[in-house]
Amino acid sequence: MPYYSDELIEEVRLANDIVNVISDYVRLQKKGSTHFGLCPFHNEKTPSFSVSQGKQMYYCFGCGAGGNVITFLMQYENYTFQEALQALAQRAGIELPRQEMSVRARQEADRRTRILEVNKVAAKYFYAQLRMEQGQNGMSYFEKRGLSMETLKKFGLGYANKFSDDLYQYLRKQGYEDELLKDSGLVTIDERRGGRDKFWNRVMFPIMDVNNRVIGFGGRVMGEGEPKYLNSPETMIFDKSRNLYGLNFARSSRKHYILLCEGYMDVIALHQAGFDNAVASLGTAFTAGHANLLKRYAKEVYCTFDSDGAGIKAALRAIPLLKEAGISAKIVKMKPYKDPDEFIKAEGADNYQKRIDEAQNSFLFEAEVLEQNYNLGDPEGKTAFFNEIARKILEFEEELERNNYIEAVARKYQIGFENLRKLVVHQGTRAGLTRENRQLKSGISEKKKREDGMKRSQKLMLTWLIEEPDLFPKISPYLGPEDFTEDLYRQAAEIVFSQYREGKLNPAGIISRFTEEEQQREIAALFNARLKEVTTTAEKEKALRETVIRLKENSIQYRSKHLEPTDMEGLQKLIADKKAMEALKTQGIILLNKDKI
Question: Which of 65, 316, 317, 320 has the greatest count of CB atoms below 10 A from its CB?
Answer without folding.
Answer: 65
